[in-house]
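Pasting as-is:
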Amino acid sequence: MYASTSGKPRNFRLLDELEKSEKGVSDGSCTYGLENAEDDIYMVNWVASILGPHNTQFQNRIYTVKLTCGMDYPKVPPTVVFETKINLGDVVKADGTVDPKKLEILNKWEPTSSHTLLSVLIGLRQLMGRDPHRKSIQPEEGTKYADKKTDGVQVGR
């Protein structure tokens, strides 16, 4: 069984996160869930939305993000990729991938209950509200990064 360092098996940890997302424990500015709950028994592929913070260039925009929790999650942070084009400087690469070294929560990731998928989304939203990003000119609303195959992690049977 895949276990986290806190002793809780990986799937139980992800089930807890799924339950919290379904109950809506956040303020609604960040939402997330399994991309395909029926086929993803290992809970690898997640999709999320971030509502841009007020009084920023992101205001009134919804950003779609894909998170991939590999088999080593939560020991290893999720991979985070924006589907909606966004200008967050060097935090987001040209293909929409978030550079884990540039986002504090990913850079200092620990497999604790305070480091979750929601905390990653909140970290991204907080970054949108800080200088210099809050005033950064954004791509045209609704534009997306080029489609690419995102099957996530392949799991042996």
